[in-house]
Amino acid sequence: MTARRPRERGVTIEDVARAAGVSRQTISNALNAPHRLKAETLERVSAVIDKLGYRPDQSARSLKSGTRRIIAYPTPVDDPANPNPLMGGFLEAVVAASGEAGYRILLVRPRPGQSQEQALDELIAARTVDGFLLSDILRDDPRVAHLTSTGFPFAAFGRTLPDQPQSWVDVDSVQAVIDLVGLVAARGHRQVAFLASTSGQPWMDDRRDGFLAGVRRHGLAGQVYSVPGDDPGEIVTATRDRLAGRNRPTAIIAGGDWLALGVYTAARAQGLEIGRDLAVAAFDDLPITAFLQPALTTVRLPLRRIAEALIGRLLQIIEDGVTPQAGLMLPGELVIRPSLGP
Amino acid sequence: MTARRPRERGVTIEDVARAAGVSRQTISNALNAPHRLKAETLERVSAVIDKLGYRPDQSARSLKSGTRRIIAYPTPVDDPANPNPLMGGFLEAVVAASGEAGYRILLVRPRPGQSQEQALDELIAARTVDGFLLSDILRDDPRVAHLTSTGFPFAAFGRTLPDQPQSWVDVDSVQAVIDLVGLVAARGHRQVAFLASTSGQPWMDDRRDGFLAGVRRHGLAGQVYSVPGDDPGEIVTATRDRLAGRNRPTAIIAGGDWLALGVYTAARAQGLEIGRDLAVAAFDDLPITAFLQPALTTVRLPLRRIAEALIGRLLQIIEDGVTPQAGLMLPGELVIRPSLGP
DNA sequence: GGAGCTGGTTTGAACGTTCAAAGCGCTTAT
DNA sequence: ATAAGCGCTTTGAACGTTCAAACCAGCTCC
Which range is the signal sequence, renumbered to this chain (chains A, B) (predicted)? Predict the structure, then answer.
């Protein structure tokens, strides 16, 4: 039993109405439908509103109007040892995009013992939010399935299934990696390897598929090798083995910058110079790679555009009830740097 | 003019009351004060609640009770080129800690043309949140000053002024860097340098002060040099100059892992081997440094404990009206790795 | 045997807003 | 002259919950 502190109440619409000598509803209209007021009244009322610092109580407004102006973002549970370095930038972009439209982002997470779906249900039933923003979408994502059956508004960073709402936005990783392979092929490489992590990120499959499609298209000898997690040691040794073995690749495309760091380390250990003896490219454009020498060729995710598209689609569903007919596939931005060689 | 989609209403307390054959208030009590019900009634009512999937409407509850169970976190505006890599981990910890207590985190940001204080005022006046969680506290932070004068609950990651509420939590960077200097001194180093960034992070001063205190205490020759921003190129050249100049330091303590990456690069360019020719230590324990060779000695921020302490203090203010008498200074965790030398 | 207590439950009001409808003064059409 | 329409404003009700107070039956007390 915690004693709740009595909360002092602020200035209400009634106070403003009295002070301005008009009715409640006129104040409400001044804020929500200003065109209904005579210019002179609007001016006078607005002055009083400003003077008293009146803001409609969010709860009362929500209760009556049924809209919260809040979007829930179920935060992916991060491995504390290796938190997603793009999370900050993604949230940054999402907060900016939603803020512009007058919406705010609520971070949510299932409570201990609660499933993802139950956590969503709780928010829906308690009418706490207007919609959901989902990321890290699995091929057959239970959250998407659940929201689809509920009919509750959501937008997804990552593709949904064909029979689900196409309110998704994704990055065309397949094409981006095909492009990377093209760059490698153009530089004369024949033995090319792809380094994947099997720790279960859904996007890794796309990147690998892009690689396979790329080598096929360019008639190269492609090999895929992978490490089970994100452990630096494993990445380095797996790459070292690969570089020491037969069919030594002269180019490695890593499924993420994080993995590429291991490639740099392994190459150095083998006395190979990146950009001359070994071409390297990756994915994500982590800021940290600015320190790599030579600088890393990579694919940057257009986080800003992704966030804007996601919020735009979500608000369209929430406010207009219009579900997009097709998903939106955004191109990754190729950032070509010396690690590929001349 | 956006057409609002009519929102279908869910199951209300009235529905449950009718179904269970009791009054509204009994349902309310079953959820908020179960001890008031006869065991048998409670059981029966709970069953109906579960069956109908009833959840109290958050807005209605907030309107009447005056409590939102939401904490606002004004997100620091990140440089997109160099987003704070610890942000994800910090939010992770904060969401976990607040979720445990039944609170959620609302990400907020001043709208264009709006000051920080105005953004806070808007949330207070609209009664959207119960309290604020602030980070990146400046020495004389306008947000803290404003909330202090308002008397609105907040907790701060970073120290407040003596005449302000001591609801802060901070990491004892000064002591941590003194410890680092001690480790360096014990290894026989006399010429020690500190690399700072002057891009205005408030904590950098502490780290530098710790360095100065450390060299004084251990009778070392300390030199401080700094770079204006976070640009890798500048960090590397400044360090290279320093390593090539007179009074070449044999140990460098960097104000952050990010800066240490530049030290590694510069040292390599000079043909110096880290751990043998140059001792290096830093601050933050970014996961990425796991790839550095030799591994980097650094100070890890106890994000989990920080978040728990912040949320704990904030909820104490919100729920019990008790403001902490003193701030909480948490020690940084020294992570000693080979970059210091044997 | 009526007053007082106690555990359990119900009742009426209120939280602050917006919606839907009605009202009002004035102009225009019939 | 009356009705209809228009622009602006007000009125009454409702959103779904919790608070404060009232109620009620069963007991105890002297």
Answer: none
